[in-house]
Write a structure and sequence with these properties.
- The protein is mostly helical.
- The protein folds into two domains: 55 residues; 257 residues, MetI-like fold (Orthogonal Bundle).
- The protein is built from 13 helices and four strands.
- A two-stranded antiparallel sheet has the order 1-2.
- A hairpin with a 4-residue loop joins strand 3 and strand 4.
- Helix 5 crosses helix 6, helix 5 packs across helix 7 and helix 12 runs antiparallel to helix 13.
- The two termini are 48 Å apart.
């Protein structure tokens, strides 16, 4: 009898494994219940946070109701509060960041998962991409102020306003912080999430898929575009939705770059605001009903993020069925 509970016969390669003992069954059952407790604990913690925020936001909820979501005024002097401009800014900056980061991130993942580059070069590039996630948010904000905004003001922003100023999205000149600079920096901040998860999804595919596609006469890029990416689409979509949730909750860099203007301006070159930057810029000096209004805004952001994660799960499940 071996130490692993298997019986080996002399002169034979046949191994008969013994059924699990009562101790093994107890350990397995205990492990299952322990993981259930941890999962329920996370759900309970999430619910506790939501209830705490909601209880603190209750005065503003009673004062403004659902109209808080559709009002644009934010005036602590007259106790008039609404988060429609902040919701608009949160969604616009997040989706522009995704529009830039998704093709770059998925393309980078393809390059780093296939044999386009030598292994040593790929290892260095993977490390550099993951290093982007370790840079503090405030450093991105400072870099955006001193590099991205002046560069955009002198090049792309001026060009867009000069040639496409008749179009509402570029109707105002870029003079400083605005939605476009914030979105560009945000796209760089979420790039490591999309790249890392997409690369893991691609590298985890069975090698038989590549070999079978190439053996049937497909070219390298046909194999990547028509076989590998569709096979890994659930992981890629999951990474994209996680990046969207990260973008919606980003605080410090957006606060430094977006301009913190509590108005809705269709132009991407004009200042704007997000819910996270509103909380960061005003919570420290808030008092009275304004504190409750800020927590009401935090609850709105909480719900938006929850909706994004639910949609991500539904999309991933639907893609898996396809």
């Amino acid at each position: 009898m071996s130490s692993t509970g298997a019986r080996e016969f002399e002169g034979s390669s046949i191994t008969i494994f013994q059924p699990p003992t009562e101790v093994d069954k107890t350990l397995d059952t205990g492990f299952v219940w322990l993981t259930r407790i941890f999962a329920l604990g996370i759900a309970f913690l999430l619910l506790l946070i939501a209830l705490q925020v909601a209880s603190q936001a209750l005065p503003a909820m009673q004062a403004f109701g659902l109209g808080f979501i559709f009002q644009s005024a934010w005036n602590p002097v007259t106790n008039q509060f609404g988060v429609l401009p902040q919701i608009y800014g949160t969604l616009v900056t997040s989706f522009i960041a995704l529009l830039i980061a998704v093709p770059v991130g998925v393309g980078t993942a393809v390059i780093l998962s296939e044999n386009f580059l030598p292994m040593k070069v790929r290892t260095i590039l993977v490390f550099l991409v993951e290093l982007l996630a370790a840079i503090p948010s405030v450093v991105y904000g400072i870099w955006g102020i001193f590099v991205v905004i002046p560069l955009l003001r002198e090049t792309l922003g001026t060009w867009l306003n000069s040639w496409f100023g008749w179009f509402p999205l570029f109707s105002t000149p870029l003079t400083g912080p605005g939605i476009l600079p914030a979105s560009l920096v945000l796209s760089i901040m979420i790039l490591p999430i999309i790249t890392a998860i997409s690369r893991d999804a691609l590298t985890s595919l069975p090698p038989d898929l590549r070999q079978a596609s190439l053996g049937l006469g497909a070219t390298r890029w046909e194999t990547i575009l028509q076989v590998l990416i569709p096979a890994a689409i659930s992981g890629i979509v999951g990474g994209v939705m996680l990046a969207l949730g990260r973008a919606m909750g980003e605080t410090m860099a957006i606060t430094m770059l977006i301009g913190n203007a509590n108005t809705i301006n269709v132009s991407l070159l004009a200042p704007g605001n997000t819910i996270a930057s509103l909380l960061a810029s005003q919570f420290a000096e808030a008092s009275g009903l304004q504190v409750s209004a800020l927590l009401y805004a935090a609850l709105v952001l909480f719900v938006l993020t929850l909706i994004v994660n639910i949609l991500a799960d539904l999309i991933v499940q639907r893609v898996k069925r396809i």
